[in-house]
Amino acid sequence: MADTHAFFIAAAYGASAVSIALLALWILFDGRAVRRQLAAMEARGIRRRSNTGTGDGR
Amino acid sequence: MALMDLANPTRFLALSGRVLPWLAGAAAVTLGIGFVLAFRAPADYQQGETVRIMYIHVPFAWLAMLGYSLLALSSLGILVWRHPLADVAHKALVPIGALFAFLCLLTGSLWGRPMWGTYWVWDARLTSMLVLLLLYLGLLALRSAIDDPNQAGRACAVLTLVGFINVPIVKFSVDWWNTLHQPASVFRMGGPSIHPSLLWPLFATALGFTLLMLTLHLAAMRTEILRRRLRTLEARTAAEAVHA
Fold first, then answer.
1. Given this model, what pLDDT does residue B64 score?
2. For chain B, what are the domain ranges?
């Protein structure tokens, strides 16, 4: 497979898969961290004014 | 639901929450089909098996340019309509577009070494794509350098619109200058010059990566909306503590 340049194909796909997976994980964990902080605020009774009393997330 | 209803962050959160799992599933399935087609497609008569890199490199290039074009639209939303979701969309899209621009350059280099005998040449297409990546990185740096979020949003919007001149340069660089990079072979006058056996797998991976970008963007936008709510709550709590 020397003339097919398998190393370059594998490197291109591998690096792309790892990079995209890292970005997706960063977005996922960032979202979870923010949600956790918001939940902690709400547990302390601090919530958005528009959220008080409606209970529908607004 | 009218399109304008989506401009309300709360409605956006509700709708995107319902759409997101389906979108992620569609992206995974489409990419899976695209990769099967890409590795079952015949080898190119000149490039041999190395043509497989095209099935990721070309979508990355398209999405890097599409991403920047969407940033320019968001910038108009920030500067002209002053809509908060426009700034949310802008901020969430920059790292995603930057990654696609980086991967376009990386996979292009890995294709160029066996095909051209070099990882890099200062050719107009490669250089203008590098400028696009630097613009994305500049936007990341600019936003993190300004403390006031509104000011940061406006500064990023201005830089985005100034940098948008580079998008048509990337697209037409192969026509305007003599480049080592091949000319346009899909979106061109007279139709695609690629054989359908190679073109359809390319369209499949391009659709899959587009759905993936949309999925990541919606997820990042949702987090950004919640982050701003958190910031507002923290500011209100701090203000109340001062007045108490």
1. 98
2. 21-40+50-182+194-236
